[in-house]
Each structure stands twice: as structure tokens, then as C-alpha cells.
Design brief:
With 132 residues, the protein is an alpha/beta fold. It is built from 5 helices and 5 strands; from the N terminus they run βαβαβααββα. The chain is 34% helix and 23% strand. One of its GO terms (cellular component) is cytosol.
């Protein structure tokens, strides 16, 4: 089964996340990637760490033999993300501190995470995906 990708924004996250959770038992690894929105002027993320990490994450997940679902959750533009009251910063489950953040979701809980400074490291991505 190829990797399944779901995309969510702040406005539709709850609906997409419910679908993600409902389908989670069908996959060996369920991952959520919190990342910055693309800048409409450049089509690139406004976040340099996201620009660095995204291609590495996608490459590692695409070559994995495991059945993987990836929920890409876009945090918004830079001013939206910088707000200390951003919904995913204050959410008791996610407690985001930076982007990108890659989390492994298992049994309705976060079972591992890679934050902005480490989300591009291939060995750590492999370990997160392989975690049991």
C-alpha cells in the first residue's frame, strides 16, 4: 500500500484529524507533520527548517516498505504561527514549540516526536517510523 497523505489547515484540522484517527488501525505507522504554510509569492515555505526537512521526510517515507499515513498539518503564515495562543501551541496533546514537528500517533496518543532542529535527520526519521 503506498503512503497515504492527508492535508489539513487550522480551519479543517478537526475533521481531517478525525478521519486520520479512524483510519489509523489500517496502517503500521501514522505520522503527523506540522509545518509552515507556503508563501504565495515564492511557493516555498516561510520556514527555513521546513524547507530543509520536508524533502528528507518525504524521501524517507516514500521508500519505506511500511504502510504509512501522513497527515500534513499546516500551521498558517508566520504571524499566525508566532501568536503564543496558536491553537496547536496551547493544545494539551500537541504542545507545539516549533515547525517542522513530526510526530508518531499511536493508540490515540503521541508516541514520539522530532522537532524542528532534528526533523531532517534521516536516522531519526527511520527510528520514529520503526518505533513499536
Amino acid at each position: 500500500m503506498p503512503m497515504k497523505v492527508l492535508d489539513a489547515t487550522l480551519s479543517n484540522f478537526d475533521v481531517v484529524f478525525d478521519k486520520f484517527k479512524a483510519e489509523a488501525p489500517n496502517y503500521k505507522a501514522n505520522l503527523i507533520l506540522f509545518l509552515a504554510d507556503k508563501d504565495p509569492a515564492t511557493s516555498l515555505s516561510w520556514c527555513p527548517d521546513c524547507v530543509r526537512a520536508e524533502p528528507v521526510i518525504y524521501k524517507k517515507l516514500e521508500v519505506s516498505s511500511d504502510d504509512i499515513t501522513l497527515l500534513r498539518a499546516y500551521v498558517g503564515d508566520r504571524p499566525t504561527w508566532r501568536n503564543p495562543q496558536h491553537p496547536w501551541r496551547v493544545n494539551s496533546t500537541f504542545k507545539l514549540r516549533g515547525v517542522p514537528t513530526l510526530v508518531r500517533w499511536e493508540n490515540d496518543a503521541i508516541k514520539g516526536r522530532l522537532e524542528d532542529h532534528e526533523a531532517h535527520i534521516e536516522q531519526k526519521i527511520d527510528a520514529l517510523v520503526a518505533a513499536t
